[in-house]
Amino acid sequence: MIFVGIDWAEAHHDACIVDEAGAVLGKQRVPDGVEGIGRLHAMIADHAEDPAQVVVGIEIDRGLLVEALVSAGYEVFAINPMAASRYRDRHATSRAKSDPGDAKVLADLVRTDRHNHRRLAVAGDAAIKVLARAHQDLIWSRQRQVNHLRNQLREFYPAAIAAFGSDLAHPDALAVLERAPSPAQGRALSASQIASALRKGGRQRNLDKRAGEIKDALRTPQLEAPRLVADAYAASVAATMPVIRSMTEQIERLAAELSKSFRSHPDAEIYLSLPGLGDVLGARALAEFGDDRTRYANPKGRKAYAGTAPITRASGTRLIVLARLARNKRLADACYLWAFAALNSSRGCRRYYDAHRSRGKTHHQALRAVANRLVGILHGCLEQQTLYREDVAWPPQLEAAA
What we know:
The chain is of the alpha/beta class. It is about 60% helix and about 10% strand.
């Protein structure tokens, strides 16, 4: 066996090869791209005839370099940078650091401690992960724009916030604010003009009622900014509206692509059978959990990765239970929303939540408990390749214990 540590960078990568005794067999800096991966393969071939004899440690779990290493048949481990840093401190106190030195650290780490890390596998969920993360990133970007818009409206146009609340990305808000980006223009709108804007924005029901509510809100007495300041803010709002609308359209387009890709995956039926999971949340969960059957040895490992399992800190007579901070934040966010949605579609989830609330747990603590239970149920369904069943997932004795 040989062990390869790769300290990657955007333009080049440092590689170090050690044998089973830890002796350095070779070091080299290779460029990124086809030439670099060819030189890396040639360097490895000088010391190993079979790809199965090669173990690689690297600090990323995605990208063309990682895919090339996995496709070559090497045993590849993605090492958390924090874990690599702690391992470096175990063997040196000088705090010296360099790229070739980091490559040596990664090679030694997979030589001695690879049993404590997850091996990367050829994933069938790569396309879903790309789409799910792009969809989530775009939603977060739109929310930043909406927050910026709300801050502007608070400065000169509070009537708009009174009319539309916090959901300024709603088609109704976009349709009206595009037509009336200033308080003076808002007060000048008639109910019929507002109804026309709402109709163009896509609203089909309660047009007259909603138009009347918006008209009354826009005409309520409010403090006003100086005219020049208000005009400047109005120009800024008018420029922001098309950006938010375009983002919304692209989010919908990505959601359609995500749904199509997710439903073609073999595990999609199992994910969709669980309460609270639809196409988007199910795709996010699948993308972040991955579809490698060997990745999680047991439900506990899956829960820890999701961040739903609590951690304990015990010292002497003290015992504290805390929420897990070291976690996949995208997955933790998806599981939280999943648990919240499941409360309305699963009686077992609702009773489990209510039991925790009755014991004094906060809303967030109870939701994390529900999410933790759902992740364990998902693990069992995937392991047994069976669909979710409410009576099996929430047996009477479990509900009594909750």
